[in-house]
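Recall the central idea of this unit: under ordinary conditions, the amino acid sequence of a chain determines the structure it adopts. In this exercise we apply that idea directly, starting from the sequence alone.
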Amino acid sequence: MNNNVTLKDIAKALNLSISTISKSLNDSYEISLETKEKVLVYAKFHNYSPNRMAKGLKEGKSRSIGVVVCSLDNNFVSQMLDGIDKYSTEKSYQIIIMQSKESLEQESACLSLLYARGVDGILISPAYENVDLSYLISLQDGGLPIVLFDRLSDQIETHKVGADNFKGAYNATVHLIKTGHSRIAHLNTNTTLSITTERLNGYKKALIDYGIEFKPELVRYCDYADTTKLMNDLERSIQFYMSLDERPDAIFTATDQITTKCLAILNRLKYKIPEDIAIIGFTNTDLADALKPSLSTIHQPAFEIGQLAARKLISIIESRYKITEFETIVLDTVLMIRESTRNRLRA
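Accordingly, the structure predicted from this sequence is:
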């Protein structure tokens, strides 16, 4: 099978013009469905692959998109990248993935490199250290399309796609209340990003709605930029909770890593879950069912977030006009109830 078949080869084989082949492969309205189908079948059978570089030069585009995420060592991030990759590939764009490692300095270096490589646009989930998006705004002002996903900010006007963090946190806290828990602690990150404040506010609102006093001492913040610091902060927080005269009977955790690491620490310290303390949090780990006990979670539509963010960015890239109206899209989360929040009222 010839993997280097060209438009000219297809045109010759089917006795059609190169223009007709090109338009068929690009789903042009000028070409009949019958001809399109014939061309697509032949192209697929002969493993035709368009020359992206040549196409990019012709269109004045690189056909590439820069993607900046916190870390690749994260189930939730991996699932979002799958969504980005699927849609981008369908639209003949390649993606260049870079990691900020939650560092503002490294994030800026990633953005500079992507800009220098001539990407057509950037998808970014800002680092936890980043409280100032002025560099992103300057790139956007210079004509580079940018879309935020997962971690959103009001500082920049663009399309933004994420999960409904407030509602997810609200539902998690209500679930704990309805399963007999009233002293609910909350572990969050020490940043000003929207996901932190939205999840904290959802937790607070659930307590208020069910007549439970909000106690600031039950909210603890962890350094998310470094794994060692995160583990130390979590261990100190759990030791603090368990030293209280009225210690919590449940913990709501705000991020993927906090949730799974918190469960590991509680198990290591020999606390029984959910008998001694229940736990629920935001995480998309595939191991939630296999953990001991199985972990109740707020599941986020990661793949859909990535796919929709890519769609929004490519719509800006391919628009003939300057985009002036932008959307902020929040997708619903799903409450997944498992053993770590077993109902106390039925015990």
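DSSP finds twelve helices and twelve strands in the chain.
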